[in-house]
Amino acid sequence: MAKDAEKGEWKEYIWNPRTREFLGRTASSWGLILLFYLVFYIFLAGLFALTMYVMLQTLDDHKPTWQDRLTTPGMVIQPESDETFEIIYNIQKTESWDMYTQALDKFLEPYNSTVQEQKNDECKPDEYFLQEDSADVKNNPKRSCQFKRDFLQDCSGLSDRYYGYQDGKPCIIIKMNRVIGMLPGKDGQAPFITCGAKREDTDKIGELMYFPPNGTFNLMYYPYYGKKAQVNYSQPLVAVKFLNITVNEDVNIECKINANNIPSGSERDKFAGRVSFKLRINTIN
Ligand SMILES: *[C@@H]1O[C@H](CO)[C@@H](O)[C@H](O)[C@H]1NC(C)=O
Ligand SMILES: *[C@@H]1O[C@H](CO)[C@@H](O)[C@H](O)[C@H]1NC(C)=O
Ligand SMILES: *[C@@H]1O[C@H](CO)[C@@H](O)[C@H](O)[C@H]1NC(C)=O
Ligand SMILES: *[C@@H]1O[C@H](CO)[C@@H](O)[C@H](O)[C@H]1NC(C)=O
């Protein structure tokens, strides 16, 4: 019958006892094919390993070979409020601002004098702390400068443990993101922070006070050499205290970095070099 013949043909294709062929090939033919692929893949793996090895030789562990030319660093505020960038509380309701002062306490812990003295150097202020590598000798690990929380004076949480939240004069702390190799400021002029209200709120913002004075990031904290080279680096901070902000109203605020060589709010990233948030302090009269 035709079906039987077909079945026989199939069987014979899989294993042909006459020619001793398996799937149409003899054992030695299969052997050669396997050998070929084995050699081929070993060759590919070797080539890959060699390329990786050569690539890795050219990399420096302590410095990125390639970096996006990020000229304008981002900024963040503390206390950070669940991504909404709103700080809203009621002076009389301790539980409404408790979380903010606690967040600041936690954030400032690494800036404790004892911690900073242990980890970092007292640097010469108002000039860059350059620690370049000389040709072959890598200058690692690099030292970092102390930033102690008492530099933030009234906003340090030391003299006023509630950072002014309890009397409607809250502190906000601003941190600029790290950018490896950035030398902000020029001609000895340190970068500084200024805050202002969005246009419709200009009458409501009241007087501000900055810590350290003038809201500057001292030049000695720059350049930053990267996490691996400069393990103990502490980012400098600027605190802003709102001395007479209008209560029971939303006040939209924007803080920005001023440095004659940092273009803020470039085309590429409108939020670079600036941070906006809403502050609303409620009170029961
Ligand atoms: C930081 O210092 C304050 C007092 O100055 C102390 O109460 C607190 O425990 C310290 N925190 C750390 C983490 O050292
Ligand atoms: C980093 O800090 C530790 C103490 O926490 C200190 O022993 C070490 O020397 C510091 N390293 C540098 C490079 O400053
Ligand atoms: C703050 O800025 C003013 C005016 O630019 C300057 O006279 C003063 O010395 C600065 N203060 C500090 C501590 O940098
Ligand atoms: C606080 O701001 C109000 C207006 O919002 C103003 O009338 C008052 O004089 C200011 N107080 C101080 C001490 O600047």
TrEMBL record:
One Pfam family it belongs to: Na_K-ATPase
Membrane topology term: Single-pass type II membrane protein
Entry's Gene Ontology molecular function annotations: ATPase activator activity
Gene Ontology cellular component list: sodium:potassium-exchanging ATPase complex
Record's keyword annotation contains Membrane: yes
Annotated compartments: Cell membrane; Membrane
Membrane-spanning parts: 30-56
GO terms classed as biological process: intracellular potassium ion homeostasis; intracellular sodium ion homeostasis; potassium ion import across plasma membrane; sodium ion export across plasma membrane
Major place of residence: membrane
Assigned keywords, A-Z: Cell membrane, Disulfide bond, Glycoprotein, Ion transport, Membrane, Potassium, Potassium transport, Signal-anchor, Sodium, Sodium transport, Sodium/potassium transport, Transmembrane, Transmembrane helix, Transport
Gene3D superfamilies for this protein: 1.20.5.170, Na, k-atpase alpha subunit
Family: Belongs to the X(+)/potassium ATPases subunit beta family.
Function per UniProt: This is the non-catalytic component of the active enzyme, which catalyzes the hydrolysis of ATP coupled with the exchange of Na(+) and K(+) ions across the plasma membrane.
Protein name: Sodium/potassium-transporting ATPase subunit beta
